Amino acid sequence: MKFFWKYLFPPLYGLFFYTIIRLVSDLTNQDKFWERRLEQNIAEVVGVILFSFLLTRVPPYYVRKFSRKGGQQQLRIIFLEFGQVLLTAMVLATIGSCVIHVAANDYPIGIDDLVIANVLVSLFMLLHYAILRGNSFIKAYVEQKVLVEKIRNDQLLTELKFLKAQYHPHFLFNALNTIYFQMDEDVSAAKQSVEKFSELLRYQLYDQQQTVPVSQEIRYLDNFIQLQQTRSSEKLRLEVCFDERLNGQQIYPLLFLPLVENAFKYVGGDYHIKIAAGLQESVIRLEVENGVPAETLLKKEKGIGLENLKRRLELLYPERHTLTAQKKENSFCRRTDSTIPLTMPGKIKCIITDDEPFARKGLQGYAAQIDFLDLRGVCENAVELNSLLKREPVDLLFLDIEMPYMTGIDFLKHFPGAPRVIFTTAYEKYALQGFELEVLDYLLKPIPFERFLKAANKAYDHFRGQQAAVTPEDYIFVKADNKLEKIHFADILFAEALENYVAIYTREKKVITHLTLKMLQEKLPAASFVQPHKSYLISIDKINSIEGNILHIDQYQVPISKYQKDEIMEKIVNSKLLKR
Q1: Which of 122, 269, 365, 421 is most buried, judged by most C-beta within 10 A?
Q2: Cβ pair 261, 170 in contact under 8 A
Q3: Does the pLDDT value for residue 127 go beyond 50?
């Protein structure tokens, strides 16, 4: 593209420009172009083409010059810019006309020739400059909007970290006070309180993952409740109920504590507290109720706990949460609902492959003791493993390296789409190759159960992290025609790159948005979309037929790049092709 604009565009520009001059001049003077001397025509054409190399470089020069100055684009500044471009065009047109007429042996130069050259050169150059300058304005505007959005996101992340870091001083002071007095009465109980208190602090200060399993949040909450029980009145009636289904769902940490803390802080009346957390489809609900005195002195103060919670819910679960507080006859009830993706990891399907019978038996026994491992088969070598994987896809392989027919490393290199692997071998020398193949772990024989369990837990964390990283939404929003268009992944037929824009096709509409194809591809599920050509991104399940290098999708035709046809056909057809 750079070659075209640098070397081909100026001659084409010059020929077009010369054609316009000849039309205007010949029609005015009633001359005939083909009756003029050939040498004169050739000299004029060559002169205009050479002159065009200079003309086409003037507008980009002024765009770079004025863009560097920046500042506010006032009307006066814009007029000055175009004035300078116009003055340059007139000077160049006058000089160029004189030089070309002399070279063509066509002089003296008439005033009408100078006027035509000045008008046309000025018009073309101003138009060229306006297009380039407008494009630079749009580019600067888009870059500024992207920068503003990045700054806004950074501010939100900073605010979230700040809100998360604000520990509740009411709880801190009272917990320390309780431990202080326990030291005089019951040292053993004080030690237990210190342990629970340290667990709470450790969870907040060090376990700073983006999301955590809800079971981890509940353990944190349970420690807090036990600490509060220690310092509460003996007449406190506490009822706690946590749904057993709340296990592996990923949530943002430290969301439940403010509600529970306020229940202990304001409990009164019959001194009852009820805490219940449950799962309803994709909604986690926490409901906290505490008794209140029959008559209370209202204080107009706001603690930072509930304010932080409200703000964090707005940032983390926008339009996917509710937070309510209700005063009943003798109690006060607070409830929060948060809609979450259900990302509970199931059992990990695995296969053990080893040529040694005792090794296979030992690993089988280990796998049977770990509840999240689902052993689907045992193989003696890579050939058996290859056959089994065709019938039984799994998540994880416990794979020996030194085996007959084919080593475990060779198997990984030649098996496309192999599951994740934990190597089990007696040789240390393959460790580097193993990690180059991105295996999850490397177990050296003899393998103790503790080491096997550690590797299995590592695999569990890996697959849980993969599930947590999956975006739960099945749609995107794109900006088009000054509004945000919601597009479901399932509705997309294909997308087409259009310079700095992308056209997204569905059965109902065509949406053009200011994106790149790469940016769109990063938001779409990789298993459902493929790029058969540098300018197209298609939905695999929307393909009606394939004819040569053409994909038929509804009434549209999408080309397949000849350089990557085999790779694309493998992704699209895979093992679904039936043939005799």
Answers
A1: 421
A2: yes
A3: yes
Last residue of one domain, picked from the residues 116, 143, 170: 143
Same domain, 192 and 294: yes
| Cβ-based burial of 84 (10 A; exposed 0-12, middle 13-18, buried ≥19) | middle
Other C-beta atoms closer than 10 Å to the C-beta of 380 total: 17
CA distance 227 to 174: 10
Please check whether residues 203 and 327 belong to one and the same domain.
Answer: yes
Classify residue 560: in a domain, yes or no. Answer: yes
State the Cα–Cα distance between residues 97 and 103, nearest whole angstrom: 10
Write down the pLDDT at residue 189.
75
Beta strands in 212-254 (DSSP E): 212-213, 237-242, 250-251
**Count of structural domains within the chain:** 4
Identity (one letter) of the amino acid at 46?
V
Closest CA to 310 of 276, 347, 338, 339: 338
Specify the pTM.
0.35
Type of residue numbered 499 = E
Q: Which of 136-140, 208-212, 260-264, 280-284 has the highest mean pLDDT?
A: 260-264
Provide the residue count of the chain: 580
User: What is the Cα–Cα distance from 116 to 414, expressed in whole angstroms?
Assistant: 71
Tokens 């940490």 -> residue: 253
Q: Which of 427, 419, 380, 379 is nearest to 401 (CA)?
A: 427
| Higher-pLDDT residue of 239, 39 | 239
Q: How confident is the model at residue 539 (pLDDT cuts 50, 70, 90)?
A: very high
pLDDT of residue 192: 76
Question: Are both 102 and 25 inside the same structural domain?
Answer: yes
Q: Where are the alpha helices (H) located in 70-110, listed in sequence order?
A: 75-103
Kindly give the residue spans of alpha helices, DSSP state H, lying in 207-344. 214-231, 257-266, 304-316
The DSSP-derived string for 421-437 is: EEEEES-GGGHHHHHHT
Residue 240 · residue 290 · CB < 8 Å: no
Average pLDDT of the chain, as a whole number: 79
DSSP for residue 7: I
Q: What's the domain range around 493?
A: 475-573
* Co-location of 187 and 316 in the same domain: yes
Last residue of a domain, one of 469, 490, 523: 469
Quickly count: other Cβ atoms within 10 Å of residue 215's Cβ.
15
Residue 544: which residues within 8 A CB-CB, separation 6 or more? Answer: 552, 553, 554
- Residue-wise pLDDT for 194-214, tens only, equals 777 777 666 665 444 456 778
What is the pLDDT at residue 298?
44
Condensed to tens digits (0 to 9), the pLDDT of residues 298-309 reads 444 445 566 777
Residue with tokens 């890996």: 462
Least confident piece of the model among 180-184, 292-296, 390-394: 292-296
Q: Are 212 and 250 in contact (CB under 8 A)?
A: yes
Q: How many other CB atoms sit within 10 Å of the CB of residue 556?
A: 15
Q: Would 376 be classed as within a structural domain? A: yes
Indicate the burial class of 202 (C-beta count within 10 angstroms; 0-12, 13-18, 19 or more). exposed
